[in-house]
Structures are given as C-alpha cells and as structure tokens.
Design brief:
alpha+beta; seven-stranded antiparallel β-sheet; about 20% strand; elongated
Amino acid sequence: MEELEQGLLMQPWAWLQLAENSLLAKAYITKQGYALLVSDLQQVWHEQVDTSVISQRAKELNKRLTAPPAAFLCHLDDLLCPLLKDTACPGKATFSCDRVAEALILRVRSELSGLPFYWNFHCILASPSLVSQHLIRPLMGMSLALQCQVRDLATLLHMKDLEIQDYQESGATLSRDRLKTEPFEENSFLGQFMVEKLPEACSVGDGKRFVTNLQSLYMAVTRQEIQVGQKLRGTEDPQTSSSASSQGTDSQLLNQPEELDSSAPSLPVPEKEPTVTSGPTQRPQLLKVKRKKLRGLFS
C-alpha cells in the first residue's frame, strides 16, 4: 500500500462542486487499488482499498457486470480523470455525495460495456496523521517557501535600486516619466500589505483559489517531503541513485586513462614498450630509451 500512499501525496488537489457541496479532492488509482481524499475545509475524509474490496463491492453494486478488479479500477480512473483534472472533455459519469454520520459517500453513476455502472466511495474521517501529511505539513512548507521567495525578491529589488542609482549618477535619464519608481522600502511595503492586501489574500473561501493558484508549489513541497522521508528510511531515491551512479563512474574513470579534449593541444604519446624478459644486462639500454622519450615529450 506504500505505492498508493505516496502516489496520493503526489497528486494535486481538485475543486469540486457537487450540488450544494464544495469539496477539495485528490485520488490515486493503480491496478492494485485506489486511495481517495476529500475535504470540505471543515473535515477530511479518506478511503484506501485493495483489489479484494473492489471485487466485493463491484458484485454488490453491479450484479450484471463481470470483470476483473483491474478493469473496474481502470474504468474508475477514466471517470474520475475529467472530474479531478478539469479537462475540456465532458465527463461520462454523474457524481453526488451524501454524509452519513461521520462518513462521506461519493456516488458515481455511469455505463460500462453498455450496462449501467454504479460505484460508491465510502470515505471515513481521516486520521490526524493523514491530515498532517496531506495538509498541515505541506501548507507549512509552502508558507516557508513563499517567505523565502519574498525575501529573495526584496533583495533583488534593493539591488535594482542600486543599479538605477548608478545609472542616474552617470547621467542617465528616463525617456518616460511614468516609468519612474520610488526606492523600495521593505518595512513600508510590508506595513501597507498588512493593511490593504492581507484581508483579500487570506480569503480562503471554498478553497478554489488554493487549487487554482498554488498546486504546482503544493506538489513541489510534497515531492520534497517524500524525498526526505526516503532518505530518513534509508531508501534510495532517483536523485541519490543518479548521484551514486555518477560517483561510481567517477571512480572508474580514476582507474582509466584520462581522455583529452580533441580541441586542446595534445602531447605525443610514447609507444608501448615491449615487455622485457631478459636479465639485468639490458636494463641500462632500456633506461636510455626511456630518458630519450621523456626528453622528446618536453622538447
């Protein structure tokens, strides 16, 4: 089930409007099962099932349909894709949801092989650790990332102001007065932002703005979380594997003759000396040959 858990974490959130219910949802489906997460910003519901549950539920809801679990999972993936990915193609299914006690049931109605197809996602309240994994920790990571981004932008603005000042001191002037700006004052900017922009910026609403504007950052943060978790568990991720492979290649190169750049001038390479099998009487002559060749390299 680890594949489903990591796959679900890597998925972006989608905004759904089902009748009067505004929901955030994400799903991950494989041939072995699916994982689904749904939230109304008040509560979070979750369902994760394997092929045994798929088979049993398919028999209960679709008595006229007989197919392996992988076929039902593939069909569910086709039905959810237009809903969650906000694709241009119209969906071939009707979705609705009901709340029963503390559970949420997402109902799907469609067709499969010309016959009616029904499916119910039975989502129970998510555990605190799951909520932390998919919402609290990623949102904290996103906040810190945005804070670093703001700090870097403020530094860049200060550098731009110094650059403009240098141009002005050199006699440069603006061709259009409307392009003139005041030097950036970070404290003044932050104070004005808190008064004028903060109320609008913090308007979470039904979560649609979060889904529309921040999903690329959300996925970058969750990807980083997965990589950190893999390192802590001693699991080699693709980057580590690539690094290890590179190190292995470097180690091999250290034990091999270095290849010279074809564009660089090269020194003449001495020919390989024949193996000497005779005794000490030929060694003085061999030393003379070596010295002559070395002098040729540096002459």
